[in-house]
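Q: I have 101 residues here and want to know how they pack in 3D. Can you give me a structure?
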Amino acid sequence: MHTVIISNFFAEKVKGKYAPEYLEKVVETISIHPKTGKNIGTSKNLYLYKLGICDHKKYEYNLIYFFENKNTSVYIINLFKDGESDILNKAVSYLACDAMK
């Protein structure tokens, strides 16, 4: 089981979208099986995990997280609407911004 670190961006964006119990289940799944998400593009360390329709809106979201290897933590970067363009660049940008804080 891996440690899961949640970014400030994700914590703010997810507020009120999903029930805490649902998010806990997703985090637990990712911590046990960090490669359960779909690998994004040319990066071997960024993963996309599809979430269902949120509680109060009709949108589906994708959770983006970083995982390097079995000796590292899983870092949840942010949440993006399904179909949002240029996720890879946005995820890297959020990751860099959070690292600078």
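Q: Anything worth noting?
A: The mean pLDDT is 85. The radius of gyration is 13 Å.
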